[in-house]
Amino acid sequence: MDLLRRLVAQGIGSSVFLAAACSGSSSAPPSASPDAAATSAVPLDAAPDALASPDAPPRADASPPIAGSFLFGVESLSAKLDTAPSSAENQAALAVVERELRATYVKIRLTAQPTEPFTSRSCQPDCFDLDATVRLFKEKGWSMVPMISAPAGPGVTSVDVGRYVRFVEWFLTRYRDDAKVEYLELVNNPAGPGWRGTDDDLLAIQNGVYERVHAGFPGVKVGTHGVEMFADSTGPEATRQLQILELLLDGARGARFDFLAFHGYKPLGDDGPYPPTRSTLHNRFAPIEGILELRRRLDANGWGDRGLLDTESTYMSPLETLSSWGETSAALMAQSLVRKRALLSNGKPALLGALPLKVSPRCEPA
After folding, report:
1. What's the gap between Cα 265 and its chain centre?
2. Which end of the chain has fewer beta carbons closer than 10 Å to its terminal beta carbon, N or C?
3. From residue 215, how far is each of 166, 173, 181, 211, 362 by CA, in Å?
4. Cα 151-157-159 angle, rounded to 5 deg
5. pLDDT tens-place string over residues 158-191
6. Beta carbons of 203 and 246 less than 8 angstroms apart
7. Which secondary-structure segment (H or E) carries 172?
8. pLDDT, tens digit, for every residue of 260-286?
């Protein structure tokens, strides 16, 4: 990881990969949405010494700050930090988030509760205490970025949509101040099997949350549902991913949001994940340059004030897996971040930031 740490010192940022599978479970492949997340935001305009070890002496060759800023983050399963904060794995994860990355923004993944009254007990799918988790956030000075999915079930009704919106309102009323919530992402990967509602239901949730948050919680930015667009094929998964993306980008459908939250995994074809030199055949949004197409679509709708945030991604070399993530993948991850950071649209950064990598023990269903 020396390479990535050097890149951190140069203002690009990254971390170590500490994925730990639970007993009887396996880590999700790149084609699946990881089931937990923490994000740290480190401005890329920070001078190198701002990211160095607190015990390290100032560097005489420190470079000047980069103009502008780039929201850089990582993912982590903060719920596990709540249940066993003193474990060796969790302490290692905390050390990375605090000392390696100087994290201030931490994204966690939640599910809207299916019954009322709402409580601090949250399950994703393992249950944990939100009150205790927020106390940890407050102690660390982190700003929580929640991604809130809809509960699993046979379908979605208008009652479910209303309850989801009320859960978001309850959550922000109870936790916004202590957790310093500024950014909110909605349903995870609605192109996947976890979402059982219609496109109209997705829009109802999107716009209902937007209206409620903007009316009652000034300063909280509402993102879209977490869309995925990595599939480069003509199959049903790729088709559905693009349908969800078009639903949100179609100005006539009237989706209301402050930023488009997308999961910027590398392209995946029928024969597996692509190396960085391979071009896509079917999906113009899948490669890193597809971010510019997203930016053009937003601008064409007159949505120049709406941002783009890559809220979830990782990068593995063809020879490595999630459990053997090493220096090759670290270098490829850093390369992809540099390319994303360098994208310009009309002379301005096309991307608000990126929240890649997995830092912390992770438990996922098999």
Report:
1. 11
2. C
3. 13, 12, 16, 6, 35
4. 85
5. 999 999 999 999 999 999 999 999 999 999 999 9
6. no
7. helix 158-179
8. 999 999 999 999 888 888 999 999 999
